[in-house]
Amino acid sequence: MQGSNVRYVPGYLVFTRGEALFAASFDLQRLEVSGTPFPAGEVLITPGGAASFAVSETGSLAYIPAGAKSGTLAWVDAKGSTEMPGLPAQNYFNRLQLSPDGKRIVLVILEGGFRHIWVYDTVRGSLTRLTLGDRDNASPTWSPDGRRIAFWTSKDENGVIMTKPSDGSGSEETLLSSAKVGPPSSWSPDGKFLAYWQLGPTGKWEIWVLPLEGERKPKPVETDNQFDHINPVFSPDGKYLAYYSNESGRSEVYVRPFGQGGGKWQISTGGGANPVWARSGKQLFYRESENIMGVDVATQPDFSASTPRIIVPATVAATLSSGLDAFDVSPDGHRFLVHRQSSEAGQSLQINVILNWSEELRRLAPANKQP
After folding, report:
1. How far apart are the first and last CA of the chain?
2. Do both 74 and 38 map to the same domain?
3. Is the domain of 160 the same as that of 18?
């Protein structure tokens, strides 16, 4: 059973895969899972990976629905000016990324109970669907040449990393499939490696890379079993990985060498998540308390980073980003692409409560697998 944010409700273990909520029949006496996990809804996931839901001992559920994130996208800069790229209001999820040339945006939209990947052409104003079918797809990331997109999906109780041509033509290719496999987050600039995270033996997220040439045997980069290490992102020169971890007791952004020895450097000082490199490699940005933060970076003679500073304050960024901290930076490093709350969605998140939710799970469970 692959997932995180595990809770127990009478008769079931409830957990998340991405922002999807799943449940599986569970024998509390034997401490055994029985039956196949089944979808049980969509919930909001915070930038640190925590799920916005809780269950009571009596089997009731309180949650913030994923649909509360309805909105669109916006450009914002350090001066607070904004510009709309023309996307319609949708249920967008916490992942977006600009193509290497900055002319397209890959994003994730909830439709029909499943997340699907779409590509928006900012020049032509067209929105093209990339994934099909009744399965969850998430965490897309561009190849260095912009021709392919890697993404995560679930199949036969496994997490699966796949790629597909970014123009929607051709078939999907499976790169990796395992019960432990989590989302891909970055291709190396030379296209030879794909960074992703996967569950370790203690249930914590570890950083791994998948070679895309030769034997294609996955290799661990960070496997500290005590803490989560999430969202590894290659630097533009391919020599470093930025990521965030809770090893200090809260989420902070770090940088470590890739393919060479050496330690690591803590970049954020007041909490941080979702690191994004400037295309020049001279700056690294991240989110902290809804601010967009930035540091200046030097790699010669050794790696160094400046004191973090606010680039776009929370008074601007939080108003736009509607609780979603994913963002990207334009190729020139002057603008940031963020989610924008739709006017009809309101400014407050809706909290839903379902009494006797365990009864609803019995209804949703496959008929021959009910406890």
Report:
1. 17
2. no
3. no
